[in-house]
Structure formats: structure tokens, C-alpha cells
Specification:
Strand content: under 5%
Number of helices: 8
Number of strands: 0
Shape: extended
Structural class: mainly alpha
Radius of gyration: 21 Å
Order of helices and strands: HHHHHHHH
């Protein structure tokens, strides 16, 4: 199977390099809206908005994200998701691995050096590993909190009355 570099992927979907940009393009397409109209509504140029979607500008500002939410008329979970995607759309993120151990420093450096050579399946696999780790940590944190609360209230493993 031929490996396809992420940076040189073809197609409109692949050119929307940031998660925020990909979602905004999908929302526009679903509603039949044009980039130039959205840019005018947000008070930015079409070139700027397009570059922002492609990751050629920094992460979108809070004001731009809020304007986007208002432009599409999305609420609650969908608005929260746009904000979350904007926060994850810095095209040049910095990874602070200091104090995390040698393996974490190695991982950060290798990822920084090699991400451009990974194919889409490899990137998806790495994201799945991170998602599982975050979920596992959340489950452990919840279990610890419950155990701590049980210990404080004395409701732990007592048999029912």
C-alpha cells in the first residue's frame, strides 16, 4: 500500500488542515453557503478565512469562533464542539514534555519530526491511542473520586441494613 503524506494530500477535505477549518467547511457545504459571504459576515477577508481554515494562520480567536457560531446559528453541543475544535486547531502547537520523563520527551520529539511522513491511517491510529488513554484516565479519576467520597462518608463496602 502506498503511503500518502498528510501535507500533500489531495482534495478539499485534506486541504482544510485544521479540525476547525474542516468543520466550518462542512457546515458551509451542508447549508450551501459561500466562504466570501461568511467572511463578510465575520468582518474578515475571504483570503484570511480560507488561510485560517487551512492552518496558514494561527488558531482562530475567541471572537471569530463566537462569530462563526452565530453565523451558523448553532447552539449548545455543536457550539461547544466548534469552540473545542478551534482550541485544537493551532497549526504549530508546542508540546511541553519537561518533567514527563524520558519516554514522553522522546515521543514529543519523534512526533514533531515525523508527523509529516505519517499516512492518514497512522495518524488515526495514534489519535485512537490518545483517546483511549484519556478515557482510561477519566475512568480511573472517577473511581478514585468515588472511593475517596465513600471513605469520607463511610458509605464504602458496608453491607446493607
Amino acid at each position: 500500500m502506498a503511503r500518502r503524506r498528510i501535507a500533500r494530500a489531495d482534495g478539499d477535505e485534506a486541504r482544510a488542515l485544521t479540525p476547525f477549518g474542516r468543520r466550518v467547511r462542512a457546515l458551509r457545504a451542508a447549508r450551501g453557503l459561500q466562504l466570501k459571504d461568511m467572511a463578510a459576515h465575520l468582518g474578515v477577508s475571504s483570503a484570511y478565512l480560507s488561510a485560517l481554515e487551512r492552518g496558514e494562520r494561527g488558531r482562530p480567536t475567541f471572537a471569530l469562533v463566537q462569530g462563526t457560531i452565530q453565523y451558523f446559528g448553532v447552539i449548545w453541543d455543536e457550539a461547544d464542539e466548534l469552540q473545542r475544535l478551534a482550541e485544537l486547531s493551532d497549526p504549530a502547537p508546542r508540546v511541553r514534555a519537561a518533567g514527563c520523563g524520558a519516554d514522553a520527551v522522546l515521543l514529543a520529539n519523534r512526533l514533531s519530526r515525523e508527523i509529516g511522513d505519517l499516512d492518514a491511517d497512522s495518524v488515526a491510529a495514534l489519535l485512537a491511542v490518545l483517546d483511549r488513554a484519556v478515557l482510561d484516565r477519566a475512568v480511573l479519576d472517577r473511581a478514585r473520586a468515588t472511593t475517596s467520597l465513600d471513605a469520607q462518608t463511610g458509605t464504602g463496602d458496608k453491607p446493607p441494613d
